[in-house]
Amino acid sequence: MTNLCFDACSGIIEVCGQMPGRFYMKKSVPQFFILISFLTTFVIIRTITHLQKAHLLPNQNGALHIHHMTPGIILLLISGFIGISFWRNKMAHRLPAILFGIGAALTLDEFALWLFLRDVYWARQGRDSVDAVIIAITLISLSIIFTDVSFKKLIKRIFH
After folding, report:
1. What is the mean pLDDT of residues 14-19?
2. Residue range 55-96, pLDDT digits in tens
3. Which among 12, 135, 146, 151 is placed 20 to 30 Å from 2, CA to CA?
């Protein structure tokens, strides 16, 4: 799993590096922060859950079990509020982008829980969460690549 995230990130950087000036454009910076915070959080949360399954880290005990999608949803709400409230302030774009990436990773890592309405994290159906994360990484990466791309120039470049 970790290799997949690192491969995806290095592939994105390689593709963006081939597009002169595209990667460093100011308009794609928030998407880049979303991607990096998303990938970092996903790798960390998967590592923690695997260590908990191996009994190397303690897990929650007791009647109340708070899934990590709960703080993820809270972070998504906070990032949305900050993004909407301060959308004109360009300096304020990074904080909601980072919070959104973290919240999205925490939430999508338990996508199968939404889908099946039961804890299937370690079951076969838990793979749906990984698929949702891969789709999210792909979409965020495409948003970085195609931010401010003139589609007329892109089509011309592809077909000529």
Report:
1. 48
2. 999 988 888 888 999 999 999 999 999 999 988 877 778 899
3. 146
Q: How far apart are CA 22 and CA 18, in angstroms?
A: 9
Distance of alpha carbon 24 from alpha carbon 12, whole angstroms:
13
Q: Classify residue 160 by its DSSP letter.
A: -
Identity of residue 102: I
pTM: 0.75
Place of tokens 């597009």: 19
Nearest Cα to 69, choosing from 132, 111, 115? 111
Rounded CA-CA distance 155/160 in Å is 8
Q: Side chain identity at 106, as an amino acid letter?
A: L
Largest CA distance in the chain: 64
Q: Which residues contact 144 (CB under 8 A, 6 or more apart)?
A: 12, 16, 23, 28, 31, 32, 35
- Residues 6, 70: contact at Cβ < 8 Å? no
Measured CA to CA, the distance from residue 101 to residue 79 in angstroms comes to: 9
